[in-house]
Amino acid sequence: MAWLTAAEALQMLQVRPQTLYANVSRKRIRAKPDPKDTRRSLYHEADVRRLAGRHSGRRKDTAVAAGAIEWGEPILSSGLSTVAQGRLFYRGRNAVELAEVSTLEEIACLLWGARELEWKAARDGHAGRGDAGEGAGAVDRSGAADRSGVVDRSGGVADRSGVADRSGAADRSGAADRSGAADRTAADAGPVVADGLLAARASASPLERTFVALGRRAASDPPSLGRTLPALQAEAVSVLDTLMRAMLNCRSPGDRAIHDQVASVWGRREAADLVRRALVLLADHELNASTFATRVAISTGAPLAAGVLSGLATLSGPLHGQASLGVQEIMKAVRRVGADNAVREWLAQGRFVAGFGHPLYPAGDPRAAALLAHMSPAREYVDLTRVVEEVIGEKPTIDFALALLTHVCRLPPEAPLIIFAVARCVGWLAHAIEQAITGHLIRPRARYVGPPVS
After folding, report:
1. Catalytic residue among 126, 259, 285, 358
2. Which of 55, 294, 333, 353 has the fewest CB atoms within 10 Å, i.e. the most exposed one?
3. Boundaries of domain holding 154
4. Is residue 431 among the annotated active site residues?
5. Do 192 and 307 fall within a single domain?
6. Under 8 Å between Cβ of 62 and 48
């Protein structure tokens, strides 16, 4: 993203400095400290250009709507989450603070308006009957799972100071220690294909498995239109379970917390607390691209699974849920030529440095800071962060933090996408429920700019 100096912004706006500062205070123009001189500020170019297009301080409805689609003003009412003053809130509660103590299940209850007992009843009922149109999906309740459903957080990641690989060796993110799989339960190891969940090939990628699983449900589940809140909440538990099982190629977690199940499937139980934090921080992010896609689908009355399928399809893009792959890619260049040369080569080629800079967080992504505070990064990640902040002036985003988490805990390379999808499914379902209960058909008009109509 591009930033302007005060002089450049004033020239573009043709206003006095007081007016520029007033627009910043009213959140119409995003600003951040100039990394070269912290006494000065830089102003977001897209915001300045949008305001510069106004005449006499007012715009026509068509101009307002067009500007709102791209990082603009709110275009839908929602009581779920918001970004305010550089912080993320879930129903008015600070997401970073929630990540210190909460599980993804607890955030789901908060966002879906459900109670914990309702969640457990819906989960147990789903586990007992399996998904509609799918195999039995029986849960292994042999006793290996923690019956309390609560993971001991006293130790978090067992040795945070020593987990990071400081040797500067090649990225081991894809070299998960398969020997750790020995401590998995039978429920972890059971393939989804054998469970009757998929008609996809056994070697399918997490995305392929999940597209198939959600597609089957979208074709057979009842519409979301006209259903009660409890019915939608119960189905949401089932849809989340379907997505998680397909993504991880495992059975239902039973009584265990989702983050414990995720870490166990990867043979990295010591990473459970970091996974929990990441899941909570990624659960929702107001009206992002994938959430908007979900709400559009649900506004037609489509099933919850269809809404989540729409969200997942949108998340799969390189500018959204796959952004951590871009971080992993530039890290290869950092190891080859050093951080300074890698960033300069990237910029010289006109390439976007993934994992840094977020339009909603000009002072830095608080989700990334909250997760990074609990990891000891390898030297090359520290070097990349320093160079990007010095050369580009941007701070790490949650995508960078996910890439680092994958490296530090030696998770499989697809881990960032899986964590993102499982977490954000909670937010998609929250917005789907809200849209189904209170919404209407989302049908914006196009502002025609083609050849004259004859």
Report:
1. 358
2. 55
3. 93-320+410-438
4. no
5. yes
6. no
